[in-house]
Each structure stands twice: as structure tokens, then as C-alpha cells.
Amino acid sequence: MTLITTDSIQQGLETFRNADTIKRGLPPFAYTAEDFWEAEKDRLFPNSWVLVGFAHEMANPGDAMPVNVGDNPIVLVRNRDNSIKAFHNVCRHRCLKLVDKAKNVGRMLKCPYHAWAYGLDGELRTTPYFSGTDPLAAPEGFDPKEHGLKEVRCEVLHDWIFVNVSGDAQPFEEFTAPLLERLTGLDFENAKLVGVIDLGVVDTNWKFLMENFIEPYHVQFVHSSTTDQPLVDHYTVIDGHCQGSAVDLDESDEGGDGSGNTLAVSSRYLTLFPTFVFGRYFPDQMGVHLNVPLGPNKTLQRRAIYMTDGTELDAEAAEKLKQLWIDVHKEDHDICVLLQEGRKSAVSEDGGVLSPHWEDSVHNFQKQVADAVS
To answer: Is the pTM of this model over 0.70?
Structure first.
């Protein structure tokens, strides 16, 4: 594991910011150094709106799902009123992690240590024998209302659960606005889930997966067997914390070879900083990546696929669509692993160079990373 001093990190980021007309990428320590990863866990993720799960996987009241944002253990809970709330996943008695795996907790979140129990709204309901031999009595001066679970900002957009641990991120409506403005006409309520692909742990930094999705430069080279979207038809998208690319094809160019084994449609590849990934594939599909950073060189990735026109695919069609996306992701993963490996070389010290035309959106993303950890 690479170690680097805080001063070296700040100097390296300053050099990155001051690059000339041809922009350079982030220095390699941003993808390999334990200290940089610690800074991301301490500042970047807690201070941002972070996608942490899919609401359809918490369909019933009492469903609870543990997640982590940086080093912060969080538990998501489907409440009796069908809303989803998030709490710090810590008992207020001895600070034990309450929920260690996804499950239905019924009406209460009960600590396995001393049986303190909390309602699905986070309020402390029982503290058995806390004051002595009486199982119901509370010690003098102890107010249960002051010892409920600590709530975390939580919002749900369609099927996607976001949390902001610090409470300092911008209002959620402002966060999602630049994305939704580019998706006018898309009826989220009519969207049907096809399924979720578990893509496993990829041996690469989370930022490489984000950058790879954001830029269109690689598409016709890396995905020549799975897509048919000429590079010249693409353009980049930069709108503050929303960045990515898009491609508009003539109807005569759409459809690929007709086999359904390639992607050849007008598309929108959009992200919201730091980790939200949204793909719109005309006329009837969208996909969302759940990227879970696990360390400087490990990222867990899942992909949810939806039909946007209300179509419910039969099993054969669903499996065919899933396999197409598995093939596309495999191509991307192979590249991102090689990007990670390349950061071990001294040649990578200057960060490489970015295309001013095709990778300006990547540079915009990298500037936000640098600002978030500074």
C-alpha cells in the first residue's frame, strides 16, 4: 500500500490544478495512496450525496440494510409509513453495530448485546434492566428521547437511495437538478426493473470506473464488439457536479446488426459527483451503477437495468440483456485494472495527459476530487 504525506498530497494536487492548456490527470497517489484514501473517507464521501442502495431491495416495512459511507456504518430502514430512513448503525448504549447483514427486523431494531430496542423511526423504546433489577425502570436523569438512533440525511430518487452523512451537502433537489434537466420526458414511475447484475469486486480505484464511464474517447476502441457508436458522434457534458457524455445517432444508424448483442442507440452517459452513474439508452432503457469503494484499489460494482416504457421482459430477453451488459462491463473492468497497474510506474508521476476535446469532463470530475480532499 502506497503511503504519502499530507504535504505531498497538497503539493501534487496544486501541480494538477496549475497544468497548462493540455491538462494532466490526477497524480498516481490519488489512486494508490492509503493517506489519500483516508482523506476521501474522512471528507469526500461523508460530505457528499452518495448512492448506497436500491429501494426495491427493501420492499417491506422492517427491512433493514447495513451500508458504509467511508468508515461510517449506516443502516437503512423501511419504516411503517413506507418511507426509507437512514441512521448511524450504532446502539446508543455501548456503541455496538446494530445490524450486520440485510434482514427484516420486524417492528424493532434490537441490539444483540443488551437488548436495547429502537422503533423503525429510530426512537429508543426499551432499555431492559438498565437501572437495576426492574426490567422497565430507567435511571434518574435518563431521558429515552435523547438517546434514539442518530438520523442521517436520506433521500430516494426513483429506486435509488442516497445519504449524506455530514449533513452539509447541498439540498437534494439541487444535487439532482442537472441530471433531471437532461432527462425531460422520462417517466420514472413507468420504469420496470429488469434485474440487478452483481459484478463483484474490481481490482481498481473507484475513480477509474467513474472516469471511464464519463469519457467517450475509449468507446469505439474498447467496445468494438459490443457497441456501434462512432466516436465522432459523441459529445461531452459538463454542468458543475454533473458530467459525462452523450451520442445522438440517426434512426437509420440505430440498432446495430439487429442481433441485440451490441449497443447502437442514442445514449446519455451521465454522472453526479462523486459516485452516481446513470445511463439512458433510447428509446426504452436505463441503467444505474452502484459503485462501492472498498479501498485504494478495490471497488464493488452492481448494475440495475430498467425498461423505461413499462415493458416487462420475459426471462430469455432479460438474460440476453443482462449478458450484453456483463460483456460491456468486463471490457471496462479489464481496462480499469490496467489503469490501476500503470500507476505503479514512475512514468505516471505527471498524471498523463487528457484530451481537451474528449476528456474535459474527466478533468472536471478530477478537479472536484482535488477540491473535496483539500
So the answer is: yes
